[in-house]
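Look over this one:
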Amino acid sequence: MTVNVIGGGLAGSEAALQIARSGIKVNLYEMRPYKLTEAHKSGLFGEIVCSNSFGSVNLENGRGLLKNEAKALGSILLEVAEICRVPAGKAIAVDRDCFAQKVTNLIKENPFINVIREEVTEIPEGITIIATGPLTSEGLLNYLKDSLGIKDLYFYDALSPVVTFESLNLEKLFFGGRYDQPADYLNAPFTKEEYENFYNALITAERHLPHDFDKKFFEACLPVEEIALRGRDALRFGPLRPKGFSKSYYAVVQLRKENIEGTLYELVGFQTALKYSEQKRVFRLIPGLEKAEFVRFGSIHKNAYIKSSALLNEFLQLKSRPEIFFAGQISGVEGYVEAISTGLFTGINAARLFKGLNPVKMPDETMLGSLIRFIVRNSLETPQPMRANFGIIPERFFKVKKALRKKEFVKASERAIDEFKTRARITPD
């Protein structure tokens, strides 16, 4: 007897490793590298294709608190993230090759995990976690639509370009962080004239869009040119905001290390749908990037997700078939740590179900519990994927003074996680 996990991304990898930790055999299905997605380039498990940042570690930041909860619950992938960490101020960013390779090694070397390299086009018998991510294959999507009556739900996501460090003009750049944070970022400051030239080139550049494109972007993943179209100063109050530096700049582009060696840097907040030739032309107008060598251009791709409020219960099980769980971004959460955390949660409960035990609810007084409650209970007709944030915590915390609210919730989260660990018997047999 085994548990099935479909998808070898962040959620699926975490779920499979958690189930195996309980001494239960897992069939882990992954179609890559035999069939690649629009964004993936390899068959490695845990391959990340967008930003290399896992977000803040600050406990009064929604994603920072979610990390804290996942670590307390024994997340294996977040342990790997710490090993492969690159400097990024108060955020966790990773060398993506190091991260994916180490996750792959953990899975391949685990005697309880059987890797099956094939596309799944229907749900197998038995306890199953569907963690195929936002780039779920058309074959499985069509099966889910037919068998579950799922309507089309998707949004467009975009990737940022990556450039080589040696191609940058360091005389025009400086290392530093906003508000005296560690100097982990390269910064490209604009004068007003330089910004105006860049802005005009950006909003008139040619884009490469899919035939069914309808500007259906998730707000947190808007392409830089889409933000620019909102107004001349939209970028200056968004990803290019100059505040927090010791000098007064008109606008600032930040670049973050892409790998441990520091030979590659990603343009922070520069997700884009511009044609490759236009990316070269326009982004080389950024001071210090005049001769930038691009090793990855930005691009867009369609991300799929289900309407969890209609289909799933509080354990992320299908209401109609409780032996089937959904985890990761296909369930309607958005973000790396959100995917890992839901994979962790469903892995724990799939293991309990396998042992004949009832699943355990994640307390509402946790960021993960609040996130799950939002996606399975909201009444929106066409919900968008949700990230961890303090706007989704239980209503009773909004009666606490705003200055104290986050601190109160952090305390409640720590107590609730301890309670969950006791009830769920997290430790391996």
The radius of gyration is 22 Å. The first strand starts at residue 3 and ends at 6.
